[in-house]
Amino acid sequence: MPGRPAARPAGPPSGRPARGRDGRPLVRPERRARLLLALALAVLVVFAGRLVQVQALDARSVAEQSLRDRIGPERPLPAQRGDILDADGNVLATSVERRTVVADPLIVDQYKRVEEKQVVAQGLEDAVRDLSSLLGRDEDDVRTALTREGRYSVVAKGITPEVWSEVADLGVPGVTSESTWARSYPGGTLAGGVLGYTGGDDGAGLGGVEAVMDEELSGEDGFQRVERGRMGQAIPMGESERVDPVRGGDVRLTLDRDLQFTAQERAESVREQAKAEWVSVVALEVSTGKVLALAESPSVDPERVGSTDPALLGSRSVSDVFEPGSTSKVVTAAAALEEGVVEPLDQFTVPYRMTTQNGQSFRDSHHHDDEPLTFAGILGESSNTGTIQVGERLTREQRHDYMQRFGFGQQTGIELPGESAGLLSPADQWDGRQQYTVLFGQGVSVNALQAAEVYATIANGGVRIPPRLVEATVDADGTEHEAQRPAGTRVVSEETAQQVSTMLEGVVAEGTGDAAAVPGYRVAGKTGTAEAPSPTGGYSGYTSSFIGYAPADDPEVVVSVVVQRPTNGFYGGQVAGPLFQDVMAFALAQRGVVPSGEPARLYPQTW
């Protein structure tokens, strides 16, 4: 019609965006598609770049990092500790294989045990029950171990390989074992105080030979690392790293197992009979200083140190000191003879009680009338008053000097921890009484090994050889290294030693030591009965002893017996003499020593 405007074409005007009913512009589909395509291409470019970086540029470092992530933590491989052997190679201490059972708590609940096609156990609680039954552990303890946070938990230690085999047969997921070693002492308490014990996480030596020779015995630990999957399981044929441990070396001692056993068994019997606090038996080889036996009662089981009185964990024979009493009169005798102030047949009138020039009063152990005794008789009868008469001919310095020469107041150097040097005060510190008491073994103290060493010196012709316990060490490859033999030191002349030896034979044949005689052999020795110092001051009880050697004409073995605070008898000859006889008789027979020939021509005891 004329006058009507022409109709507008559909759609927005050219150059203007289309709008919806609400007036908002509508996006064109082609533009949205282009935008999405651009974004996708950008993401692909990023991924492609990262892929090129990972697979091409950083491939080696990424692979190495991935392998490190899969390789589990380093697990130690403990070295087997070396053995301790006796002189003949018999094992006194060794290491036995044990297992530490560990678990991965995250996968233990997947446990399932099937028997005859039937599920008989399943899940965490059944795993707890089955494991605790085989391991001999409380169920609560096992449950705690299996539910602990993390992927590594110790379930049980010290498990035998036989028990572990049964545990492994259960097939509990995540339960594995690590090899370790436990110390074993086949003889139980045999030489327990000498061998010592081990302990701590590394099984190091903590006492006795185990501690002193720890470096030689320990060896070198190794380690192992294996490649593991996401759940912690070892990947078969995966990467691994292993350094094998190196076994420790062996230590061979001078001890004779059979003699040690006999001495220790008899010491235990005497301790019970005498109702004593403790008993020590030391046996030395005269010509070398080798310790053949170092027996004590009570002894200790090195495998059960946790329940043992700490006082028993060392060797009393080297750590405990006592006043030697009359056994040390041999030092006074040797000093007087060496200095030429007396001869074995010199005559003395010996009273029961005497008073010295400075007013000190002394007496003998038994009441007697004045006795006409030779010097040999004074030693044979173990007279205190007679010994003082002889000792007064020596100066203070001479008395002290000879005690030092024989080893008083100094360690022997034995390969054991905790050795006491004993007590020997300087001569200028002796009071008016001590200057005399040291002549018969009071006011001075020694350990049992020092006391035995004195008699070994006389038996060895006057030459003192420090005692030793270690014969040799043996490397893991079998190479043996003999221990250094200490040099001897002359203390008195051979003539003096022979005179003292003949006097000591008289002690056994005609004096106080008759209970120590060994039929068929010439025995030299001396009894000792001394008051025992109390830890709280003063004296309480007695120290009873006998020390001697045989055959006296060609000495091979020294045996020292010390019985501390016996209550059923207390004289040295009565309590310690029979024990000496038993041990010496065994030692001579074991070594094949032929019986002695003609009896000695002894010095007369009286005049």
TrEMBL record:
Annotated region described as Disordered, given as residue ranges: 1-26
GO BP term, pick one: cell wall organization
MF term (GO), any: penicillin binding
Annotated keywords: Membrane
A GO cellular component annotation in the UniProt record: plasma membrane
Domain Penicillin-binding protein dimerisation: 77-235
Coiled-coil ranges per UniProt: none
Annotated InterPro entries: Beta-lactam/transpept, Beta-lactam/transpept-like, PBP_dimer, PBP_dimer_sf, PCN-bd_Tpept
Pfam families: PBP_dimer, Transpeptidase
Domain annotation Penicillin-binding protein transpeptidase: ranges: 280-584
Membrane spanning stretches: none
Subcellular location: Membrane
Record family assignment: Belongs to the transpeptidase family.
Name the UniProt record assigns to this protein: Peptidoglycan synthetase FtsI
Organism, as annotated: Pseudokineococcus lusitanus
